[in-house]
Amino acid sequence: MIDFRLTEEHEALRKTVEEFAREEVAPVIGELYEKAEFPYEIVAKMGRMGLFGLPFPEEHGGMGGDFLAVCVALEELARVDSSVAITLEAGVSLGAMPIYRFGTEEQKQEWLPRLCSGEMLGAFGLTEPGGGSDAGATLTTAVERDGTWVLNGSKAFITNSGTRITGLVTATAVTGKSPDGRKEISAIIVPAGTPGFSVSKSYSKVGWNSSDTHELSFVDCQVPVANLLGQRGRGYAQFLSILDEGRIAIAAVSVGLAQGCVDESVRYAHERRAFGHAIGEYQAIQFKIADMEARAHTARLAYYAAASKMLRGEPFKKEAAIAKLVSSNAAMDNARDATQIFGGYGFMNEYPVGRFYRDAKILEIGEGTSEVQRMLIARELGLR
């Protein structure tokens, strides 16, 4: 029989993060979100809890857990707030994971302990202003000169790239041409504060207001040749594999938001009265919330299935795309329904569902749009 229950360790983690989210995040995130402030104190507490080091080995400063542990933590955080959840997701999946997967031992020793502790955040510099979903259309260049890489170009929509604890950005850049004439794209570590590396002001966004997102610029930015991450010319392939893992994590964030909408709607349905009754007594509300719960439950099973294949070392690209597609749809649909249940109050930023509604849309866009997920699923089915 298939058993979808979490292990004792994962369940203990889930309860710990659930308590943290309710007691530490929920009371303060509304004000931080309204001011578009990065939650430095919350991030520091998550670092002390070991959340940024969950999937990494102890010898590199991690907790010795697995990727499912990260997803469980992300889901519980996103039930309360997605800005906090995406800070953790990007810090682990996009900031530290490329170093762990492809870095030299020296690079791991230099960067991973601080990334795992949450003392430092890393960023993932893939998307470019004119590229969007076409990540292979990289225009940023890196020329090898006198023992350095000289970078020129720009990146867009980069999470965790401009905080005062951001330590590095791993950027993709064209480093030459392959024998068949195609772009040779490599990944290069650029430490924060490197001359020629600048961070634009924070974007004014629809949602994720307490998450840090910037456009980046490289103008004759020089870093040592030793900052090449992984094999030269394999940067694009490396980052595609990182995105497969990251889609499972984004699915977990989406499930958390979808479940948070259910949590808030159930509570409100008991409290809000209309025409002499609690609105939860009306079948229209009951059915709407039942559909919301069904979406969250189904999406959770989808990311569990993708994570289980990943942890077994089996191909999981299709399952990750399915999980990301299904869960982001669930988040968007549940946010819309929760806002409807709350009526006018759902349109107010002081209520969590208003924040959920603003945050949900990006989940259908970030780390591969829904259209990209459908493309990946079709390809895995042999439709090319």
TrEMBL record:
Reported cofactor(s): FAD
InterPro entries: Acyl-CoA_DH_CS (IPR006089), Acyl-CoA_Oxase/DH_mid-dom (IPR006091), Acyl-CoA_Oxase/DH_mid-dom_sf (IPR046373), AcylCo_DH-like_C (IPR036250), AcylCo_DH/oxidase_C (IPR009075), AcylCoA_DH/ox_N (IPR013786), AcylCoA_DH/ox_N_sf (IPR037069), AcylCoA_DH/oxidase_NM_dom_sf (IPR009100)
UniProt keyword Transferase, yes or no: no
Keyword line: FAD, Flavoprotein, Oxidoreductase
Superkingdom of source: Bacteria
GO molecular function term, any single one: flavin adenine dinucleotide binding
Ranges where the Acyl-CoA oxidase/dehydrogenase middle domain occurs: 123-221
Keyword Metal-binding listed: no
Stretches assigned to the Acyl-CoA dehydrogenase/oxidase C-terminal domain: 233-381
Residues of the Acyl-CoA dehydrogenase/oxidase N-terminal domain: 7-119
One Pfam match: Acyl-CoA_dh_M
Sequence similarity: Belongs to the acyl-CoA dehydrogenase family.
Protein name: Alkylation response protein AidB-like acyl-CoA dehydrogenase
